Amino acid sequence: MRRMTSARILACTALLFAPIVNAHMVPELTAEQAVEAGRNYQQYCALCHGENRQGHVNDHAPSLRSKSLLETGFPERTAAIAYGRLGTPMPGFLDEIGGPMSEEEIGRLARWLNDQEGIEVPRPGLPIPIQGDTVLGAKIYDRDCSECHGSSGEGVTGTALGNPAMLSMTSDAFLRHAIVNGRQETEMAAFGEHLSDAEIDAVTAYIRSRATGWSVQKPVLRKPPAVGSYVINPDGAPPNFELKDDRYVLSSDLYDAIQNKRRMVILDTRVMSLWQLSHIEGSVPLPYYYERETLADIADDLPRDGTWIVTYCECPRAAAEFVNAKLVDLGFENTAVLWEGAFGWVGLGYPVSRGDTSLGQKASLSPSITEHAAR
Fold first, then answer.
1. Tag placement on the chain: N or C end, fewer CB within 10 Å?
2. For 254-289, how does the pLDDT look when each residue is reduced to its tens digit (9 = 90+)?
3. Three-state DSSP class for 355?
4. pLDDT tens for each residue of 128-155
5. How many CB atoms lie under 10 A from the CB of residue 197?
6. What is the CATH number of the domain that holds 202?
7. Is residue 289 classed exposed, middle or buried when 0-12, 13-18 and 19+ CB atoms within 10 A define those classes?
8. Helices 197-209 and 134-144 meet at what angle, rounded to 10?
């Protein structure tokens, strides 16, 4: 069929709108709340999006100063902050899935981003599907979009438009607005003057069509290792790593060390929610955003006998290097960063462990982790 049927479009959009925060639920920020939101941004977001929200500091994280981004999609933005973009380095920050922020804090952070650019927070509209010729849209996409967004929507220098997690939280109107107006502060051009309304509708419908056939895997939470289990294979010999540039360990070497039951500590420096969804077996979550004092408290539980400590993240290395540097400052020796990161680890075919608690049950976190984080 050349056009998406109403039933098909509605099926695609049925799961789109369960946003945790709507625009009208976030009142104007007080001075104190604005300071807090700015502090949260620097702690949790600046590593990838930049201190000044300029974007593309790590992982092609988009600019958060773009007018066309901020004037649309407030519910989508809060959902992205809360639940992340599965299949990308963007993690979920909502405390209910293991992140460090409450629903209210996420809503205020999203509003703060608008306030920084003086852009009024948009009120949510109905998720009205856009009718379009998907065959025509595919041709236009291949011609005008694939160089940056990938021939299969996998993302190159631009957003991964074929990502089901992104599409599941993004309305047709949001997609269309971006096509028409582009994304200021990025290389995303405005196509409103180059494409007709019918062509823009066609591209929107084509991108939406990439959401069909996706499956939902309900995330479950898992307890982090207890203090006494931080060291894996405690009776094993130390690994014989040959580090790249005196800092980085390759996935193949780390995997061999795990298989040979070598003694070490593996620290997952991503947001806790990502550790709970999948992680290298035996790794301990130590998110990059922990304050130095919290990190120092947790470091008291880490071995100082020369045991190798390997950090990894998604990016592939920014957060892991950040934590590694702090550990070195605290006097730890034999530290290394996983060169390929979590995505590279999985992409090379090495295994990860996933949550193993009962569906629908919320696992209690290890006191050693949650108590440190609460201090």
1. N
2. 999 999 999 999 999 998 878 877 789 999 999 999
3. coil
4. 788 899 899 999 999 999 999 888 887 7
5. 11
6. 1.10.760.10
7. buried
8. 90
Note down the domain range covering 322.
227-374
The length of the chain in residues reads: 375
Sequence-ordered list of residues with C-beta below 8 angstroms from that of 308, at least 6 positions apart, any chain = 238, 239, 241, 262, 263, 264, 265, 334, 335, 336
- Answer whether the bond into residue 62 is a cis peptide, omega within 30°: no
Beta strands (DSSP E) in the chain are 248-249, 264-268, 284-285, 308-312, 335-338
The answer to the question of residue 6 being in a domain is no
φ/ψ of residue 171, rounded to 5: -80, 160
pTM exceeding 0.70 = no
Q: Which of 188, 23, 44 is nearest to 115 (CA)?
A: 23
The pLDDT score that the predictor gives to residue 130 is 87
The CA-based dihedral angle spanning residues 357, 84, 116, 30, taken in that order and rounded to the nearest 10 degrees: -20
Q: Are 119 and 109 in contact (CB under 8 A)?
A: no
